[in-house]
Amino acid sequence: MPTHEPDRRETGPSLERILGLIDPGMLDVVVAPRGTGVPVTDVVLHDPGEEREDDGARAAAGLILLAVGVEAASPEALDVLRAADRAGAAAVVMRPGARGPRAELVEAAGRGRTALLTRRPGQGWTEVLGRLRTALVHSGPAGTAGVTGLRPGDLSGLANTVAALVGGAITIEDPQSRVLAYSRLDHEPDPMRRLTILGQEVPRWRVDELRASGFFRTLWSTEDVVRLPADDRYAERLAIAVRHGSEVLGSIWAAADGRPLAEDAAAALRTAARAAVPHLSHHQTWGLAAARAREGAVHALLRGDVRSAQEAGVTADRPYAVVVAEAYDGPGEETCDGRGADAYDAQGTPDGRGAGTPGGRAGRRALDVLALQAAAYRPGCVTARSGRRLYVLVPAGDGEAGPARTLLASARSVPRDVVLAGAGPVAAGPAGLPASREAAELVVRVLRERAARLPAGEVRSAVAAYDEMVPEATVLRLLDRVEPLWGALSGPVHAMVEHDRVHGSAYGDSVTAYLDASCDTGTAARRLNVHPNTLRYRLRRARELFGVDPADPAVRLLAEIGLRLAARRPHRTGSP
After folding, report:
1. Secondary structure of the chain: what % helix, strand, coil (to 5)?
2. CA separation for the pair 14, 27 (Å, rounded)
3. Mean pLDDT of each 10-residue bin along the chain, 576 residues long
4. Potential cystine with 282: which of 30, 152, 195, 404 (Cβ 3.0-4.6 Å)?
5. CA diameter of the chain
6. pTM of the entire structure?
């Protein structure tokens, strides 16, 4: 087998180093005629249909070519390998197929210069591309003095380090202007920085403004720092795009933070942009996958799988309280069982019903803000999203839910959006978290039922701890047990509820208001916004038509049960 010295014009980390940084078993080296010490310059997708004979002998020098759609056992595989070899590719990756590489292909690879690799079954091309590119940037050249020593993907650490170098406040954003990390708030931020951090993205109107002015076009088309002068609203800003080859991974923004930016701030940002490449690449490939895995572990832990505690980031011998926050968008978001779209079912898994209809973008933004506040509130807070709900595991001292209460109070600071949040009792360890979660969800259900009885304009964010809601939460538990039996029965209350459903009448609403007001007609009429005589007429008709007489203790109890159960289902209301 011939061997060759690497071409002096080829520079970059070795193929061996790149393969050592990806998941073991993702790729198999079939033949490496020059060994795995050959340098790699980039990783690209290879389309055999675009291959040209006159592209030049060094068109793909040092590249790892991913031959998407090419099977190592197919007749075209030999043509692809020979073309890659002529172009000077470091390696070509193919799908192995059921039978593996043909003997003819292996022999041809041994006589050439390009390594032949195969992709393991079950590995997608997108994942392979991402992992290889991430490994490549992690093996990149130096030139980032002052911002080294960070663990891969530590964007917050990078932001704080760069902030010290430029003498200002730093945000790191993705290409869609969403905030990935920001530096510590050592000074009061200007209004734009405050809006950006709270919303976890640059406000849409500001993005539109910068796009219309041509700022983004300049930012994405240059490798240098772009200046955004100060005006009567906001402080001066410097921004630079973070690039890997032709791909834009994101941007770094520096804002004057109560003091002028350092004289060499632009030079520091150029260094930071180079240093940020492996971290943003890691975030794209491993960071997001790790976050999804960690979130899945949190949900498994809340279902009772204590083995997931370590992966979820929960300390086994530390007490926690579970906080549940829900974005509320009206009574129609409940499911027919009244638990809400993101409740855990009887088997302990999120049922996902209604997950495609969360409480609007504003509601999701409110939960994003709460998740951000949770992360900043206390080390060790663990969060997980499910539809329009946010679950937070808050470290607490034995026997007190103070930390959870403090975090819940921040729900009221989210402007305009309605958030309902509840805290379960403190659990001594991971095994007690499902019970704390269930209690917190009951609190949210109580708050949701309260909100559903209010006019839309009067609904506000609400927070509570379970020990404040024990009676109402207990009623919900009882109703959950009674509901299957109630549906198989019939009687006066059933007849009234069915009449309301079919005819759009409001007898049930009238009786409910009367009972909620402790049978005080005047108070109930004010809550319904009707004259007391109108309410008396409706109550009399309910008694005449259906036999629903609130003066009868047995009927009153049945009405309390039946109307509470009926309120769990969307129904039309109107006048009789």
Report:
1. 45, 15, 35
2. 15
3. 39 83 83 92 73 49 87 90 91 88 92 93 76 72 51 79 85 87 71 75 84 88 88 84 80 81 85 83 66 84 90 85 85 44 42 37 63 66 85 73 62 64 90 94 90 78 87 88 90 92 90 90 90 93 92 90 80 40
4. 152
5. 103
6. 0.52
